[in-house]
Amino acid sequence: MARLAMLIDTSQCVACRGCQVACKQWNDRQGWLYSRTRNRGSYENPPDLSPHTWTRIKFTEYEGPDGFRWLFLKEGCMHCGDPACVAVCPTGALKQHPRGLVTYERELCNGCGYCAQFCPFHIPRLEVVNPLTGEAKSSKCTFCQDRVTNGLLPACVKTCPARALDFGDRDEMIAKGQARVEALKARGYTQANLYGVDQVGGLGRLYVLIAPPEAYGLPAKPEYPALVSVWQKVVQPLGGAAIGATILGILGAFFLARRNIRMEEVK
Amino acid sequence: MTNHWVDLKNADYILIIGSNAAENHPASMTWIHKAMNERGAKLIVVDPRFNRTASQADIFAQIRPGTDIAFFGGMIKYILDNELYHKDYVVHYTNASFLIHPDYKGPDELDGLFSGYDPEKRRYDRSTWTYQTDADGKPLRDETLQHPQCVFQIMKRHYARYDLDTVSSVTGIPKDLLEKIYKTYAESGQAGKAGTILYAMGQTQHTVGSQNVRALAIVQLLLGNVGIPGGGVNALRGESNVQGSTDMAVLAHILPGYLPIPTTADVDLKTYIERKTKPGGPWSGGYWTNGPKFLISLLKAWWGDHATQHNDFAYDYLPKPDSPINHSWIPLFEAMYAGKIKGLWIMGMNPAVCGANARFEREALKKLEWMVVQEIFDTETTSFWRAPGEDPSKIQTEVFVLPAADAMEKAGSVVTSGRTIQWRPKVAEPPGEAKPDYQIINLIALKLKELYAADPGPFPDPILHLNWDYGQELDIEKVAREINGYAVKDVKDAEGNILAKAGSILTTFGHLRDDGSTACGAWIYTGYFAPAPDGFGNMLPAAKRRNSVYDPGGLGIYPYWGFSWPANRRILYNRCSADPNGKPWSKDKALIWWDETQKKWVGYDVPDFPATKAPTDPGGRDPFIMRTDGKGGLFAAMNEGPLPEHYEPVESPVKNVFSSQQINPVIKIWRTDEGKDIGDNYGSPDKFPIVATTYRLGEHWQAGGMSRWSDWLVEAQPEMFVEMSQELAAEKGIKNGDKVKIKSARGEIEAIAIVTARIKPLKVNGKTIHVVGLPWHWGWKGLTYDMGVKDMVQGTANFLSPHVGDANTMIPEYKAFLVDVEKA
Amino acid sequence: MIVQIKGKPEFIQIQWVPRYTTMERVVHWFHTATFTLLAITGMMLFFPFLQPLAQGQAGITFRLIHRVAAVIFGLVPIIYLIIQPRRFLMHIKEFLPKKEDIGWLKAVPAYYLMGKHEAMPPQGRFNAGEKLNGLITIIAWLVFGITGLPMWFGKGVIPPELFRWLVIFHDLAMIVSVSMFLVHFYLAVAHPLMWGALVNMRFGVTSVEYLAEHHTKWFYGPKRAMEIWEAKKRESVH
């Protein structure tokens, strides 16, 4: 089955925060009662993703070659084609759905927090029940796995009044995004670009941007963390091999020693 | 709106001025984006700050609050000088060719005034503003538009002073940007192109608010944009169903359907009708000549069998305000403040936060003997008596709070800005004892009838005879049927054929009669609740229809979706979409046209014109059927003049450069307790050098009574803030995120500073003027306060705004006043 | 003490000599218990085949055990340091490697696999292998602490890029120390020649014969031990 993706056209986004609220409503997340936000000199609130904020809008005032632009970015899990979080999750709570969503089975999560530390975009957030015991659950955007697998659109996409969000076959979303970038360039948005086509195995969250990714706070060249490969592909097998070899070595040594040493000789 | 929401997708040029459509009407972006993406429409946004709507614009200009007439005046001059107007449209469909009274003089000659001004009464005698007429009373015209006293030439002279340099200096918009905007928007004057102007409170909430709208309407008429797809004069209404509330006349000066309310000068029905229908009166020409039918049908609806030929249809039962009428918001609160009002009944409104000069209005509430508030949540108004700093033991007002059901908890109709009435079902139960507002009113009405029956007093008839048969538990559909209108007796045409049988629900206001045979609660709505085809083979009350498939012409008309008053017309004045011979000006914008074979108007929309009147018939080229002369009024009398003229806001940092008339010469200036801490105080630029404007955000709703109880919305916008330029912040030593104090002559509040590149200082008349922006959603009561968090910044912006309003509507000047700012 | 080996008629007289202090033994056993718990609960997050144990409430519980054990694991040597600072420092010095430890390494296959007693040079209170074990234990303790504490308390404080390195080193330390532990366990419990070790660690005493045989340098002193070894070597050649 074809891979799914979300196309976020930041040029059409008006930062109404409908998506931010719709996500909380569908996923039973809290707002101020959890985050106790204050105004820090911006419309941007809450100031970060959290266990109760799986998507939010980042506001950036940008002076570029085409003049002043107010950039809006809908932040959230990128649903990478090569998800580092899935690779490092020790419980298998994080999984990659056959259609590309990086899904999450909350009951399996043991709160170790590896996903949060290894994500190249710093997305998953731990909901810490007790910092001493470490009891926690990870949380992030799931692309509304319950809705999408039942033929519905994610809550944010359904809500967006500016029609800046779309969701569907990834190839179609890429084509749509590329067409939009061309149309924007023709309208004078010289820095328009499509983000997410190839990075980290191709992202499930594609962005039509009107400024370079760094202007939005996105990593220009995000990569699958090398240490994940080192860890999963080198250290883990090595560890298993080393300990296994040790055990075998010990067994071998035991039998050898038994043959050569008689207890009677021992004083 | 003269057009409607979906129609925005047909526009080639969209000018948003005095509106923050993306934040306050987010759904409109669907259609604006469609226009931009699918037909390459250009979006121009003009606003005192670069807001979220501006983020979408192809061209943005920052304008000094209160200078919209200068802006539009400059555009009018540009259009006239460069002959960018739609010539045939202007000649045939507007009063450009009409000759004005020879003694008429305008501000170009009279230093900012029009002829007929009485400086003591602060009023105009309009006799020199009339048309020159022939012996039969028909206006004289010059279709070559050359006669010096024709409207066209008068306009040219009037706006000659609005050259680019002057307008740039007054508005603060750089000259080249101004010209770019004018040039771009004026391209919509070509046949086949449509320009739409979207406006809201940024235009209306000024002492010259009505003239602001007049100015943009003139632009639209000159460019031939009224009555065509993608065009129109489009007010984005400020609240959900405020369109319905004005239609149903929740206003002091009209009855439902915009009928003028009878005053004490209209001593009886005969006098009322005479005064309305006499030459020069509002019902003297055009479709309004049917006015008497609408009024009498209304009286019949209200007093039923007790409204007959013999008692003037219960005309005497109507309460009548004194003339001239002024019971609008500001005078109401002034009267309350003076102790003249014993009791106040509030339904879903929060004056303690939304009222101009809010400290004054909160004081006014204290003078009431009793107050009833129907509300969904506890607000600053329901709890005005225990606001921080108040001593409840000193406040004598007895407050009754009636919990009300919210919009989802009751069935009923909602009308959009585009006049589309949609019926909404009830989808949730109200909590506890909360009841729909109409049920509360129902219970009170029934109780009043009981009380008056038991103890009649001198004149109980208006109450006792009131037709009130909706049930103990009010049946809203019964009310809907009455508003729609029904036949009391058989309705017949001139030949005696029966058009509507007695008891049947009416399908058109064309069947309304002035002989008591019809009853109708609001003539403009007739047809909205009558069974109508929905395009899927069903008959339902028109407002309940939801056919989003059938769209003749692809213009987004969707005639089987809801009901657009009047008569399900989606685009008003659509006669204008066809040339004087009945052919569409262009194929791209074809809407209706004259069919010579069928001898009637056909097309994609219900013609806003007598269906069988040919273009060559008398009146065949008079598209503005509600006006006496049938033409679009470029020159049209209102309280401060027949043409918009720039005056500065009551509080302004600079002198008016167009004339020595600093402010609107006919507005009422209130001076109650002037000089006291709480009172009608006005500030001068030496003490308050900064221009402030107020506005709303996408995240909160009006006075915050609903949204500041929502966990998610409070998280997104938790505190009151003030937006200011980086330059002003540097001057005052304010950093982004600092707490600051803002004060005006009327009060002082705290806010968090948002220091932004989206507001720049303006160069006005050679001076640097700073502008700050204040959202007005906050007050002390809400989720955070009730959770014990008392240190969040929740200042009420309207502590700062002035208690002075427009000369025609009295709407307060929320959008332009003076303040000063300093670090807290 | 007189003991009789099961199945044999002889009685053997054993003379016991103290070798490990009470503190050493307490520290050792606490360390053993916590290390085992830490290793097992830690490995659940490391080896994919242990995934079911890491999941859900079970996983949360095991992570809790890991932390509780970690606290004790970390505190025990520190308590030793606080209560017996001089002995602690002496003890640490004993583990430091010396040049002659290479001799032990070279003798490993001959001694432990083949049982050739003469191959092994004289050893001190701790033979070089025990020193290696101790050193690895100490270094691992440090690495576990330095990586583990930020992994526990530093989420959101230290940069994720640093966290990732800490995980890698925590895992490397685990691999090395668990491997070492397995060898240690074998030698302490199962190896025929090392019968005295377990008794020793439990009761603190070793038999004279055992000491004379395995920890010659400590029992006799370095000079005499060397002479005995030279003699043994000469004997075996014949």
Explain how this protein is built.
Chain A has 267 residues and is an alpha+beta fold. Chain A contains nine helices and ten strands. By secondary structure, chain B is of the alpha/beta class. In chain B, a hairpin with a 4-residue loop joins β4 (117-118) and β5. The relative contact order of chain B is 0.13. By secondary structure, chain C is mostly helical. Helix content of chain C is 73%, strand content 5%. A two-stranded antiparallel ribbon of chain C has the order 1-2. In chain C, strands 3-4 form a two-stranded antiparallel sheet. In chain C, β1 (2-4) and β2 (11-13) form a beta hairpin. In chain C, α3 (56-83) crosses α4 (85-95). Chain C is elongated. At the A-C interface, α4 and α9 of A face α3, α7 and α9 of C.
Helix and strand arrangement:
The complex is a heterotrimer of chains A (267), B (824) and C (238).
Chain A: E1 4-9, H1 18-26, H2 32-35, E2 56-64, E3 67-75, H3 84-88, E4 94-96, E5 102-104, H4 114-118, E6 125-130, E7 135-139, H5 145-148, H6 155-159, E8 165-169, H7 170-186, E9 193-195, E10 205-209, H8 213-216, H9 226-260
Chain B: E1 13-17, H1 21-24, H2 28-39, E2 42-47, E3 59-62, H3 68-81, H4 87-93, H5 107-110, E4 117-118, E5 123-124, H6 151-159, H7 164-171, H8 175-186, E6 195-199, H9 201-204, H10 209-222, E7 233-235, H11 242-247, E8 254-255, E9 259-260, H12 269-277, H13 291-303, H14 329-337, E10 343-347, H15 351-354, H16 358-366, E11 370-375, E12 398-403, E13 412-415, E14 420-424, H17 437-454, H18 461-464, H19 476-484, E15 486-487, E16 491-492, E17 498-500, E18 518-519, E19 531-533, E20 539-541, E21 563-564, E22 592-595, E23 600-603, E24 690-695, H20 711-716, E25 721-725, H21 726-732, E26 739-744, E27 747-756, E28 762-764, E29 767-769, E30 771-775, H22 783-786, E31 817-823
Chain C: E1 2-4, E2 11-13, E3 16-18, H1 22-44, H2 51-54, H3 56-83, H4 85-95, H5 101-113, H6 128-153, H7 160-190, H8 195-203, E4 205-207, H9 208-214, H10 216-220, H11 222-237
